[in-house]
Amino acid sequence: MHRKSFINISFMGLAAMAIPLLDCAGRNREIKKSLVPPAFLSRICDAKTIRGIGVAYTSRFPVQAREDLLMDLLLADEAGQEPARPSGETVTASFLEKKIQNDFTTGNTVVMNGWILSVTEAQQAALFSIMTS
User: Fold this and answer.
1) Per-residue pLDDT tens for 14-64?
2) Domains of the chain: which residue ranges?
3) pLDDT tens profile 4-21
4) I want to staple 51 with a disulfide (CB 3.0 to 4.6 A). Which of 4, 21, 111, 129 is the partner?
């Protein structure tokens, strides 16, 4: 094989492997953008308060103090199964809103810094605190 052909084939192979990874990073960025800050809390609290709630949550549940785990927990269905990957900001917001309502309906709540929150809201605050620290 000629050196020029080898270089061209190698370059195309690297490009073929890199393109899906770039798309994945873009999707993760879009998903993160729709997960944080918590929609309802951000209407009534400032960023400092949300960050404080998130820090309190990760202090109480240190096992969950990882960005990737929190994202998986937030995107998991009600049964805690395989993370759903809703696409688009509106779809993700709707998914989270339903999940928060379900948390309150089933009593899946926590008290953090004097706030009664759904676990989903608390996890969003924790993710916010990790991403903004």
Assistant:
1) 444 444 444 444 445 556 666 767 888 888 989 999 999 999 999 999 999
2) 3-131
3) 555 545 544 444 444 444
4) 129
- The DSSP bridge partners found for residue 118 are 109
Please measure the distance between the N-terminal and C-terminal CA atoms of the chain and give it in whole angstroms. 52
Residue with tokens 């050196």: 3
Distance CA 120, CA 108 (A): 9
Minimal CA–CA distance to 77: which of 109, 103, 116? 103
CB-based contacts of 114-120 (< 8 A; 24+ apart in sequence): 115/53, 117/41, 117/53, 120/74, 120/96
Answer positive or negative: Cα dihedral of 118, 124, 130, 132.
Answer: negative
Which range of 5-9, 76-80, 83-87, 88-92 scores highest in mean pLDDT? It is 76-80
Token reading at 118: 């759904």
C-alpha separations of 1 from 9, 10, 11, 16, 60 in Å = 11, 12, 15, 21, 61
